[in-house]
Amino acid sequence: MINKKIKVLIVEDSILFVTILKEILVKNNHFEICGIVKNGLAATEFVSKMRPDVITMDINMPVMNGYDATREIMSTNPTPIIILSANIDETDINDTFKALEAGAVAIIEKPSACDSPDFHLYEKRLVQLVRLMSEVKVVRRIDYKNRRREYISRSFFSDTEISNNIEVIGIGASTGGPVVIEKILAGLPKDFSFPIVIVQHISKGFTKGLVEWLNHSSAIPVKLAENNETITKGVCYVAPDDAHLGIIKNTLMLSDSKPLYNMRPSVGFLFASLANNYGNKALGILLTGMGRDGSEELKALRDTGAITIAQDKESSVIFGMPGEAIKLNGASFIYTPDKIINFLEGLNTTKNK
Amino acid sequence: MDENFLKRLIETFKIEAEEHYNNLANGLITLEKVKPGESCFELVETLHREAHSLKGAARAVSFTDIEDVCKSLESLFSAVKKDALALSKNVFALAFMGVDLIKEMIYLNPVEIEDDTKLLSDTFSLKVWELLNLSENETSAPPEKTFTTNGDAAVNENNIPAYLELNGNSDFTSAQSIPNKEQITTHSSKDIQLQENIRISVQKLDSLYLQAEELLSSKLAMEQFSKDLQELSASINSIKLELNKSQSALRRNKYLVERQNEFTDSFGRFSEVIISIDNRLKVLTKSSVENTRKTGIAVTELMDSVKDIIMFKFSHLLDLFPKAVHDLSSELGKDVDFVMSGTDIQIDRRILEGMKDPLIHIIRNAIDHGFEPSEERVSNGKSPKGNLSICIKHAENRKVEIKISDDGKGIDIEKLKHSAVKKGLISLEKSNELSEDDAMPLLFVSGTTTKKIITDISGYGLGMAIVKEKVDKLSGTINIKTKPLVGTEITITLPITLTMLRGLVVQCSDRQFVIPSNYINNVNRVSASNVKRVENKSTIILNDVPVTLLYLCDILGIKKHKTTEDSSFVKIVVITFFDKLIAFAVSDILEEIELLIKPLNKQLARIKNISGATILGNGKIVPVLNIPDLIKTTEKSFGKTTDLTLQTNESARDILVVDDSITSRMLLQDILETAGYNVKSASDGMNALKIIKESHFDLIVSDIEMPLMNGFQFTKLVKSMDNLKDVPVVLVTALSRDEDKIKGMDAGANAYIVKSDFEQSNLLEVISRLLQ
After folding, report:
1. A342 touches A151 (CB < 8 A)
2. Contacts of residue A89 in chain B, CB cutoff 8 Å?
């Protein structure tokens, strides 16, 4: 990786955005633009001949859109795909999440207001994302939903005290997270009787879309968390843009205190509030993501006697956050998403006994 | 992002925005043509995507005004897509308004956008919002409601806003049952499919082209080099022959017998050297010929490829046209069906660029005065809609033919003649003699128009002269056929590429010139005794037709050397120009060559009769004659014949500009001063009258809407004064209604130009015409 440049394929029908992306990436010595194509179809043809390390994919394109192209590429020549999408368009956002479902590894908003003095922040974010994603190992996606489930021994839940004790479930995720969260929520039973509170790092403007998308498949209602909202069993709350989410006495609390791990909302903030206010009455789950947001706090939560789960390396797009937590000995269990579902199912069954 | 990059980005944005604009405008026009019952879903979807993409692009460069307009357009198309809004006239009007706003703002930087435009774009967004929200309400309201409000149909119609066509419109539902619906949709979406292209800057291409052209002159030089070598080889051969002869002569010479050995040795050494030179020369010649051939092929191929690169599809230019025709015909209240074919044919970009204005002009002409009003058309047995078409075809000799036809009323030949007579271009008697075909060239003479008042969509006259000049410049030809009531057909034939021409090198006294072959009808040699003098002109008879003979030396002002020229014969080059034959006498006709015209440098940008220079194989630089120019010169030297030149550079004339807006006034003053006129200005009619009394003016340019005394009143007053009534008055105004034009005419204005699509060249054309 030292001398080799990262080969990027840009899929974008607008010459303007191509110009911007090229400028940002080429300025950074790590990248080499190995191709620029103007629509999804051309992208699928391109990857069948050459293997880029990573693809930036526009959503709204003529001939074949970014979602169809992602699906096609992920089932034939799996390549890490980053979706570039306008974060102000409902249709785009919808397709963006569909593309995530189809196997795209990350999303970022399209560049806007290049003349603004803050634009370098976007550049930095994009460069970091493309670099990281180029290293992600992606697998061919063929009907991943039909994969055989692994089961967790029911005997674990024979002790109903664990289930009855738990009052809230907190989930934190970053890169690669939306798909896993979607999978978990879709796998839950309809009568799931715990409230779930989620912090997912996502580009500004996409949170609302994320909630809508999750609602399509989730067994339980998913909504944006509101300040001072009382949590209810069987409802899932997602932290909104640009606010930390904490929870005290079954009441949600949004905070604009300064970013933690450079993030707002931060998983750490949520887990810390769980550790402080719920202790072993909370369940913490830390999913795929870059960085180490939430790792120390998961450990703190575990230290209060709570059960904590970290996603396994194999299924994590980026094994940053869960990896760190495991290193700190912060996870009671290391599970695949399927196993997490099974665990939650078991939890629910024993509680409702 | 650094400054330069941002600048480049904005340039890129403009190019892209223009593309989106074209796709939007043309898509809308295609959509408008979709008949009720045909599905248009894909078309609407494409429009939606175009608006969407442009919005994103505008956002990236902070062109928020364009972003806003696009946002509204997008929601408009989105509603149509979801069947929540029917495509009514008002939806189209609104969409076109949005598209026009975009066009207006693309070329400006956000800070340059005028408040008016901003206001307009706000209005636009508001209107879209109203339309969408109202229609939502209406759809949610039970439809019976309208019927229960006491059954008077007129009342009902008044109650429902005209643009509200409710969802579930019968046309829309019936669309589902049309069997070949898919065929239609695929077809229409294909029409506006985007091309896949890479952008390379024009400058880079041009420099590539020039470099390839440089190779061409090396190729020519190499050919010459091989020829020289071959000649050298031939001379050596003749030396060899001479040597052999001398040798055998020596042998036969008995007086030299005793010294023969000495000579033989010397001859032997001599012939050895010669033979070795000969051999080496042969090898050299052979490889040079071989190399020349190879290089020649490679260079030709390279040239062809490069030429291919600089070839553009006609669609590149013509994609603008449907919208332009649409706008223009609706402005003039004419219903026009416009079709194009052959737009995939490619042509040199520079030719395409050069044809932009001429084509637009011709189209304008056709719409403005080609088509008669619908009622008149119907009474003439034609369809109420006018048919206008541009058809592009490949023609012989690597040429392209553009045919613009309309089924309007045709050009009024009598009016044309009349106008020409009035302008003093031809005599009345002569005009009566002219057949229709012969009269047609009069169209190209500046100053003839069949339209009574000059509007901004100007008369045929002046414009066609410019069209012709442009076409000439591109080495093309133009031909007009017209039939009263049936229509007009204008055919322009152009070379596909500009530069490679064939030319004839001629000797003129001690100098050489090149005559481009495309003008040459034939070359000939006539006996000096056959040169007759008719009406003070030398004339010869060629194929029973008298042809004017001119001496090239005389025209170019070159002194004739009394040389060894055989004076019993005259060598002539016969030129075809405009269906006329003209013979030029030259000292000698040398050879026909492929030539490459190099434009002259800036310092020499305008040299009479010379269009450029070319380099011959032997490295000699030879000027290339500009035939149209040459003909003009000759016609001037005849004195009073139809003078095709445009009048330029007259002594500075005085113009008065009357306008109450300081910006308009300054703008006009600036334009006119730049064009070389002396300009004074006044802020209203009263003020103007004062100034007029004090000094003399050759022409007055006036606004209409002014305080104290408006333009109509002012014009009327000027025209009523004895000493001023001959001073031409041009009304420049924002009012484009027909009744205003008529008012202007009644007031006595000589021309009427609408500000909204104010083009300065148009203004200057009109002014220079009126001052003639």
Report:
1. yes
2. 52
Contacts of residue A17, defined as CB under 8 A and 6 or more positions apart, other chains included, come to A58, A84, A110, A111, B56, B57, B60
Angle (CA) B118-A16-A34 rounded to 5° is: 170
Of B16, B56, B199, the CB nearest to A86: B56
**Share of chain B residues as helix, strand and coil, in percent rounded to the nearest 5:** 55, 20, 25
Identify whether A174 is a catalytic site residue: yes
Residue of B252 and A130 predicted with greater confidence: A130
Residue-level pLDDT at B744: 78
Please check whether residue B581 is in contact with residue B547, taking contact to mean a CB–CB distance below 8 angstroms.
Answer: yes
Contacts A–B by Cβ distance under 8 A: 68
- Could you give all domains of chain A from N- to C-terminal order, each with its CATH number? 6-134 (3.40.50.2300), 149-351 (3.40.50.180)
- DSSP codes, B244-255: HHHHHHHHH-GG
CB-based contacts of B547, cutoff 8 Å, min separation 6 = B539, B540, B541, B574, B581, B582, B583
Please give the share of chain B, as a percent, with pLDDT higher than 70: 78
CATH fold for the domain made of B654-770: Rossmann fold (3.40.50)
Cis peptide before A265 (omega within 30 of 0): yes
Predicted pLDDT at B113: 72
Rounded to the nearest integer, the mean pLDDT of chain B is: 75
Bigger pLDDT: B744 vs A78 = A78
| Count of all residues that appear for chain B in the document | 772
Q: CB of A225 within 8 A of CB of A199?
A: no
Rounded CA-CA distance B279/B740 in Å is: 89
The band of B334, judged by pLDDT with boundaries at 50, 70 and 90, is confident
The answer to whether the beta carbons of residues B30 and B42 sit under 8 Å apart is no
CA dihedral of B357, B359, B365, B368, whole degrees rounded to 10: -90
Mean pLDDT of B315-336: 82
Selected residue of B2, B53, B54 to mutate for chain A interface (largest A Cβ count, 10 A): B53
Tokens 């006239």, located at residue? B89
Residue range B500-638, CATH number = 2.40.50.180
Fold of B313-495: Heat Shock Protein 90 (3.30.565)
Return d(Cα A294, Cα A173) in angstroms, integer: 9
Q: How far is the first Cα of chain A from the last one, in angstroms, to the nearest whole number? A: 54
Query: Picking from A6-20, A148-162, B305-319, B417-431, which range would have the lowest pLDDT averaged per residue?
Result: A148-162
The partner residue sitting opposite B16, judged by closest CB among A15, A88, A116, is A15
Contact A15 B194 (CB under 8 A): no
Contact status, residue B33 vs residue B175, Cβ threshold 8 Å: no
Shortest distance, CA A24 to any CA of chain B (angstroms)? 9
User: One of A85, A174, A273, A316 is an active-site residue; which one?
Assistant: A174
B167 Cα to chain A: minimum distance (Å): 22
B609 within 8 A of B499, measured Cβ to Cβ: no
Asked if residues B706 and B685 have their Cβ atoms less than 8 Å apart, the reply is yes
Q: Is A216 a catalytic residue?
A: no
> What is the homologous superfamily of the domain B3-191 according to CATH?
HPT domain (1.20.120.160)
Q: Say if the Cβ atoms of A113 and B62 lie within 8 Å.
A: yes
Residues of A with CB under 8 A from a CB of B: 13-17, 19-20, 23, 38, 42, 60, 62, 86, 88-89, 91, 110-116, 119
Dist. CA A231–CA A210, nearest whole Å: 20
Determine whether A293 is an active site residue: yes
Task: Tell me how far CA of residue B115 lies from CA of B59, B121, B227, B504, B554, in angstroms.
Answer: 20, 10, 71, 60, 62
Cβ pair B1:A114 closer than 8 A: yes
d(CA A275, CA A246): 11
Contact B8 A19 (CB under 8 A): yes
pLDDT at B457 over 60: no
